[in-house]
Amino acid sequence: MGKIASMEYFRVPPRWLLVKITDADGHSGWGEASLEGHTNAVEGCLDAWFKRYQGLEADDIETIWQMSWRTSFYRGGPVFMSALSGIDIALWDLKARKLGVPIYQLLGGKVRRKIRVYAWIGGDRPADVEEQARARKTQGFKTVKMNGTGDTCWLDSPSIVDDVVERVKSVKSTGMDVAIDFHGRVHKPMAKQLTKALEPFHPFFIEEPLLSENIGAIEQLSHLTAVPLALGERLHSRWDVRPFLEAGCLDILQPDICHIGGISEMKRVAAMCEVYDVALAPHCPLGPIALAANIQVDAATSNFAIQEMSLGMHYNSTGQDITSYIHNPQIWKVEDGHIELPTGPGLGIEVDEAQVRELSSCSEAWVVPEFRGPCDEIREW
């Protein structure tokens, strides 16, 4: 076994934080610790943990995971868990590369030959969604996701509901399946109306119908609709996930591998979901390392449903995309709504370290957008 010799992180555009761990024998692995809008906080956590973990055995992934969780006194949360995710993913990549196998072979082996995927349309303030859906269809996708609304207030005009319905109808007219992301922007009075109005159009799922702190209201909403309800990107451990499973208010869990504690915790959360007959559809509007890590778990998970991928997403406006920072972008080719399962060692991607180092040299931290209403009140983004 090789001891951890060095740990580095790289802030790169458009909004990603990549991690590299190298052991004393020269083996290395890559992870992603992106936390959109809060990279400085995660970088501070990584600085502290890197000093502690130098000299530990890189193969002891679970020991390092438990150290990060149990010896910090304060547990969980987006910052700690995103930092841990970057470390965990990098350690899995290092170990599997050293053994010359994909990570999914270390997770029990594959249960599928290809991965079902979907892509984004519409942006933060959705428009031109029919045209964008047709473009995605041309790319090989069969399913898309769109924000339902821009910003809304607690009780907004009924015309908002009509507008959302018309946009969804226009996408459905292309023959695509469409998931609608409420993005936590919608409050209970509007969520009830929107969900009911969208039922006749058979959404693939509705995402974050309400913010996850409103678990009681989500449970109420789940009793009012047959539309599958999904959330999970703002849950940061199996302990955060547990009350939603126990309440029976979710059909699809969407943990983010960069916020949930990496591959180790994603696999545990997936097993919990299976017990409650809940599907796994990992959240991933992030970089190629995050996507590759998700796919390794998806490949070995029986209750996996569909994978988000950020190809051409509206946040990737700096010129970098999931095809950047890697030498083998062809692995993201979509055919008939699926991508092929990667067969290379580790994460199955080959990181372009020269590009990572070059573009990290002057990369600014991404700032979360701010929405304000007509009275200058702050609204949910």
TrEMBL record:
Q: Which UniProt keywords apply?
A: Lyase, Magnesium, Metal-binding
Q: What's the short name of a Pfam family annotated to this entry?
A: MR_MLE_N
Q: Which residues form the Mandelate racemase/muconate lactonizing enzyme C-terminal domain?
A: 126-228
Q: Write down the required cofactor(s).
A: Mg(2+)
GO MF: galactonate dehydratase activity; metal ion binding
Report the record's Gene Ontology biological process terms.
amino acid catabolic process; D-galactonate catabolic process
Q: What is this protein called?
A: Mandelate racemase/muconate lactonizing enzyme C-terminal domain-containing protein
